[in-house]
Amino acid sequence: YLRRISNQKKKQEMKPILRNPYRILGLLAGASAREQDRQVKRLRQLIDAEQEIPVDFSFPELRDLDRTIETVNEASSRLNLDADKLAAALFWFTFDNPITDEAAFDALKEGDSETAIDIWRRLAYAADSESYQQVTKKNASAFHNLSTAYLAEYGLDADTLSLKLLFLESDSFLDFKSKITDETYHISKIDAQLVFLNTLAAELDDPWQLIEYLSDLEFEAKDEYLNRFIQKPIQSIEDKIEQAKNKRNAEKNNALKAGQKLWKECKDELEKLESLL
To answer: What distance in Å separates the CA atoms of residue 86 and residue 92, rounded to the nearest whole number?
Structure first.
């Protein structure tokens, strides 16, 4: 399995991961404000002195990272608000299991993503490697981290989405939120799922690819997300219908031409809606 997926070409640069503010700062999601301030000062000093930055949690294996004073300052500013911290954390790694997570991160630092993935797979998947374990405190970070690693290394697929959504559906998400944000910040599991999916969709050349994968999955925010998503093509079709009506009324001799154009422009959207609904 690992040989098969390692031979796949990286499909698309996932900016929420590769340009994640936690990655730019070389921190894991959930780092304290004190850790963040200390790391920002350290990076500024090293960059200003043109010294090599020691190995941290930026994981160059994922892709090269060009850090400057400007990008470090920007990354730090993107982690001021709790909502922004959580949004960034959904697409970055977290540390919860000292035994497995530490070993996986050591492997990533050495550029060995396959070993890291294998470590997390052993916790997330059942013995048959075809079904998932139940999400528990012991393996919750494996679900989250494995999904992030898959998305960064191999792009989007149903497996990647399943892992992340199972994590966000579990009670462990509440522990995750408490670790990332202040105790006064509140967000439901459904809203967290919507944040993740909306951010992901914005990065895709064809958001319908995401819908195709989601159609076979079950999660709390599914109906709400799909309803929001399909409103755009429905509105687009209705607008085109109205335009065709106006053209038909203005020039009755061109009614057939207007109808043919309407069908041609709406055919793909209608087929996608039909497959979804």
So the answer is: 10
C-alpha–C-alpha distance, residues 142 and 100, integer Å: 8
Instruction: Please compute, for residue 228, the number of CA atoms within 13 A of its CA located in the half-sphere on the CB side.
Output: 11
Least confident of 10-14, 176-180, 273-277: 10-14
Q: Is 170 left (phi over 0), alpha (psi -120 to 50) or beta?
A: beta
Cβ contacts of residue 164 below 8 Å, gap of 6+? 90, 143, 144, 147, 148, 196
Of 64, 71, 82, nearest to 18 by C-alpha is 64
Largest CA distance in the chain: 75
Q: pTM to 2 decimals? A: 0.86
pLDDT tens-digit profile of 211-254?
A: 889 988 999 999 999 888 888 889 989 999 999 999 898 888 88
Q: How far apart are CA 58 and CA 62, in angstroms?
A: 9
